[in-house]
Each structure stands twice: as structure tokens, then as C-alpha cells.
Amino acid sequence: MAQVSTRTGASPDTIRYYERIGLLPPPDRTSGAHRRYGDAAVDRLRFIRGAQRLGLQLAEIRDLLAVRDTGTCPCEPAETLLRRHIEEIDAEVARLTALRAELVTMVEGIRADDCVDPEPGTWCPPPDPREGGD
Q1: DSSP 38-70
Q2: Are 77 and 67 in contact (CB under 8 A)?
Q3: Under DSSP, is residue 29 helix (H, G, I), strand (E, B) or coil?
Q4: Residue 29 exposure: Cα atoms within 13 Å on the Cβ side
Q5: pLDDT of residue 45
Q6: CA angle 51-88-105, nearest 5°?
Q7: Cα–Cα distance for residue pair 74/67, rounded to 1 Å
Q8: Up-side HSE of residue 115: CA atoms within 13 Å toward CB?
Q9: CA 97, CA 71: separation in Å to the nearest integer?
Q10: Which residues of the chain have pLDDT under 50?
Q11: pLDDT of residue 71
Q12: Which of 15, 97, 123, 129 sits most deeply, having the most CB atoms within 10 A of its CB?
């Protein structure tokens, strides 16, 4: 197992976990019950690790592997998954961009020269009665 771990960057515990959840088929065993992995297992582990780096969840990877195991090219389902993840990333970037803009506005609104101490237990100074606040 150490050789497969070194070749794929997956820890032995991770490899055993992938076996338990069905992502990696059980390997052949030696007479001493040691696991023996072939090149197909290394290829599969590299596929799994690469898909994880792209942000795919293990359930999604399982679906792609099921298609791949039929001998059919998994490109179409992979494209669908990846496009969905691109949309999710774009939405998160938009959310973070809006958050950044809000923070910049808050920082720019802070003036150190006329900062009023906040009321105890609050973050904000008391409302200025001249501004007609509540």
C-alpha cells in the first residue's frame, strides 16, 4: 500500500476509506493478506484525487466512476458537473465581491478625527440627535 500511497499522494487511511465506500474496488491480496494494487488502482486514485481538486464531492466522483467503469467516456457527465461548479464559483465570487465593496464602504466611512466612543456593550456610537436618528 505504501507504494500506491506514494504514487498517488493518498494516505493509506484514505485508500482504505475509498475501498470501504466503494470508490476503489477491493484489491487482490497476497497469501499474507497484504493488499496488492495494480496500475488500474493507481489510475483510479489519481482520477479521484484530481476530481477532488476540482471541487467535486465524493458522490459526484462515484457517479463519474460508474460511467467510466461501463467503458463509456465520462466527458459529458463531467462537463455537466464542472459547469455547475463553475456557476457555483461565479456566484461565490459575486457574493465575495459585494461583501468586499460593503466593507470598503464601511472603512471609508470611518473617520478617526471625529470618532465617538460607542455606548457600553455596543459597536456603534450613540445616534447623533442632530441627524434625526431613532
Answers
A1: -HHHHHHHHHHHHHHHTT--HHHHHHHHHHHHT
A2: yes
A3: strand
A4: 5
A5: 95
A6: 130
A7: 6
A8: 11
A9: 42
A10: none
A11: 87
A12: 15
Rounded-to-integer distance, Cα 36 and Cα 27, Å:
6
Residue type, 52: Q
Quick: pLDDT tens for 10-23. 999 999 999 999 99
Q: b/e map of 43-55 (b: 16 or more CB within 10 Å)?
A: ebbebbeebeeee
pLDDT score of 123:
66
Length in residues, the chain: 134
Q: For residue 40, what are the CA distances in angstroms to 14, 24, 25, 36, 80?
A: 17, 10, 10, 11, 25
Q: List the Cα angle 54/57/62 in 5-degree steps.
A: 110
State how far the alpha carbon of 35 is from the alpha carbons of 4, 11, 25, 70, 116, in Å: 10, 14, 11, 25, 69
* Cβ atoms of residues 10 and 49 within 8 Å: yes
C-alpha cell, 120:
457600553
* Residue 22, pLDDT score: 92
pLDDT at residue 31, rounded to an integer: 80
Place of cell 458537473: 81
Q: Yes or no: say if 48 and 23 are a contact pair by the CB < 8 Å rule.
A: yes
